[in-house]
Design a protein that fits this description.
The chain has helices at about 5, 10-20, 40-45, 55-60, 75-85, 100-115, 125-130, 165-170, 180-185, 220-225, 245-250, 265, and strands spanning about 10, 25-30, 50, 95, 120, 175, 200, 235, 260, 275, 280-284. The longest helix has 12 residues, at about 100-115. It is α/β, with parallel strands linked by helices. The protein is globular. It contains twelve helices and eleven strands.
């Protein structure tokens, strides 16, 4: 299996598996900055049998202070919620969303960081499924509880690499996955300070997607990442959500990148930390 196939599954392959009666756990992770609660969209139409997952309530722990707007959940809490979603040991999981792969990539990162195996992102999301003729169903889904067990209870030190605020400045290749205008510091609609971490290179997570929402080809991904630099790679965004899209893109090319979970929301909350603005990474 290629690196890409360990991260992504096509709509055609998912349909083939479901038509063959193979067990697959489907998780619908609708989330957008402008609409963080995607349950209503989910209930209007989702893949048959898919269970709704709340990024805000189940893939984040807002009781944690000082770690940005979307702190990682604990492994113990994730195990409980994953069982409620019907996740079972040895059964593949497919996660999907309807907006720029943000919700599904966050779920993929969190689940695999907890040590849950065989989790893949539906390439192209909900649009790819419907474009391929896939059926939708409405309403909520009641599923049998799962039995999955996580192997990492601290996702900040889990199966996927992370980097702290204290260490991120010295990272060899640092990617800022936000939109260019936020990277440059032209605007900042959410966090208290505009700009970026000094030394970062801007690779917007949306630049990794083709017009139909699928991930770019391996060759195109390599060209997007060619300015990142050699050595270890770390990724951040506004609060650790869309950075997971970039990490998934890197993983599809065989690169194991680290996540700075608190991202700009954590970094900018401390006025003692340096800030850069503009495209030239000039500290201010």
């Amino acid at each position: 299996m290629s690196a890409r196939d360990t991260v992504l599954i096509t709509a055609a392959e998912l349909a083939r598996r479901l038509d063959a009666g193979e067990p697959v756990t489907l998780l619908d992770v609708r989330w957008q900055l402008a609409e963080p609660d995607g349950r209503a969209s989910y209930e209007r139409g989702h893949l048959p049998g898919a269970v709704y997952v709340s990024l805000e309530d189940e893939l984040s722990d807002h009781t944690v202070d000082g770690r940005g707007r979307h702190p990682l959940p604990s492994g113990a809490a994730l195990q409980d919620t994953a069982r409620r979603w019907g996740v079972r040991t040895g059964v593949p999981v497919v996660v999907y969303d309807d907006w720029n792969r943000a919700g599904s990539a966050r779920a993929w990162w969190v689940l695999t960081a907890a040590g849950i195996d065989d989790v893949r992102i539906l390439d192209g999301g909900l649009a790819a499924w419907t474009a391929a003729g896939g059926a939708l169903e409405t309403g909520a889904v009641a599923c049998e509880p799962g039995d999955v067990t996580v192997s990492h209870h601290d996702l900040y030190a889990g199966a996927r690499r992370t980097v702290t605020a204290d260490a991120v400045l010295g990272w060899g290749g640092l990617i800022d996955a936000r939109a260019p205008e936020r990277f440059r510091g032209d605007v900042e609609p959410v966090d208290p300070v505009a700009g970026h971490i000094p030394g970062a290179v801007n690779v917007p997570s949306t630049s990794l997607l083709a017009d139909d929402g699928t991930l770019l080809s391996d060759g195109d991904l390599a060209r997007v990442f060619e300015d990142v630099g050699a050595g270890a790679v770390a990724v951040y965004c506004g609060s650790g959500v869309t950075a997971a899209v970039t990490i998934a893109g890197l993983a599809a090319t065989g690169v194991d990148a680290a996540l700075y979970p608190g991202s700009w929301s954590e970094w900018s909350s401390d006025p003692s930390r340096p800030v850069a603005r503009g495209p030239e990474n000039l500290s201010t």
